[in-house]
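Suppose a classmate hands you a notebook page containing two proteins, each written out with its sequence and a corresponding row of structure tokens. How would you begin to make sense of it? This section walks through that situation. The first entry is reproduced here exactly as it would appear on such a page.
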Amino acid sequence: MSITVDQVTYAAGNTVIVNGVSISVEKGKVLGLLGPNGSGKSSLLRLICRLRQVRSGIIRLGDDDVSGLSRAALARRIAFVEQQSTTDTQITVRDVVRLGRTPHRGLLSSWGSDDDAAVEEALARVDMAERARQLWQTLSGGERQRVHIARALAQSPSELLLDEPTNHLDIQHQLDILALVAKLGLTSIIALHDLNLAAMFCDHLVVLQKGEVAASGTPEEVLTEDLIARVFGVRAHIERSAVHGRTHIQYRVS
């Protein structure tokens, strides 16, 4: 397994937010992390990249316990794309992506051809090479998310974490972003709210409820009418899409 979370618990003060969670992601696969607001999705992602400290349990990248990795080593291995990021600084698209090379450069090291190559490749992979000189502030929401992903790719990671990457985007950009991630070939965990998008683009799903795993498996195994009613509190009808062949959910209005 490329990412393994083994019986991990995390608490803020006396409030347990992640409670004994175990998940695993195979190399090169995309795992969708689902659950209502407050279920622990964002906290779990931050625990994996060590922005939060586990109370108990172990998180591994391959054979390596993340608690034993230096910050620089961890940043060279895993990239994290948060929901939203902004800046008032006048900065170009290329400059944003260049920030992804920080973990690969020492305090006294100069910018090299390897750094240039990583940045240009990252821009090309998200189809933003032609916008490289454009100011960040002039981009649309979907374009900014592409640049965020390019910055993450410039880190040359083997694992990619994304926290609600399609939040606040229109449907075209939601589809574009998730299709892009699915084609990257990186081991990825994506926290999502939209169950249909998760079914379309994820190989495996984990549903969290009140900080615990409520279900885990393929989209077909996980997204059942019973689970959707029990975890999300809505009635639904499940069918296989005639368009993409994956699970499709139709919600019932009471």
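The notebook's second entry, a different protein, reads as follows.
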Amino acid sequence: MPQKEEFTGIELEFHSGIIPPPYSHMYRISLDWSKGDLTAKLDLHYTEREDLTEEEILDEGFTLNDDFAYEGPLSIVWIKAISDKVNDTKWTGKSVDDAGIILKLMDSGKPGKVKVPANQEDWQVFGQDLIQAIYETTKKEAPLTVHYREVSSEKVSDCAITIRFSDREVIFSQENETRNINWEYTVQLMKLIFTPDYNYEIAKEEPGNKRGHYIECGDGLWHELGKGVVNIDPSNDVVSKIKEIFKDLMEE
């Protein structure tokens, strides 16, 4: 078990490395709770776009100005998540040459020595979660809502899951009732949901009414599980797992 660190904030730096533009980017996030509240500062900059045409940038789904800066409050629920993440992390002596994340633990607002997490991929996901939390806090983006419908011979059952990164809350809604569900449980469910292959050529703007299972992942397009959503690996039946989890959620 890694030794517990004493700190009142972190500074996180990421560089995407040799990924080509318009995807290449770098960011720095500072998070400070030395005065009780959590203050966040984000500087996100997309790099090496000078030689691209406007059309090349827009065709990849970006805008002409995707840089973003923020300095202000973030929900204090993130303090425990950050502390737990740091204290569960193993550090490596290797340097991050071209791409990846480095950390500095902060004490009373002053950053300490550079630390390199061994679990780079986990920290990169965590960094994206923090950026999403800031986007939602500033209303730049709305929380993700996934809608699900199960049609049987007896009835049509609709439900939805809204994931709010801003305060790390997940709201499950069905008919006129809502309840909170576990954050980590939902993270694993989202990984499952985005694992299969989605066929957008047969996606529809309305959910199906024939017997089956349908999902809409926040973009307004509905896919039928087993037809428009299919397993990539035949030995890993993710589609059935998604059906089972939503069935359990709707029956609780």
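A careful reader of the second entry would note: Residues 144-251 form one domain.
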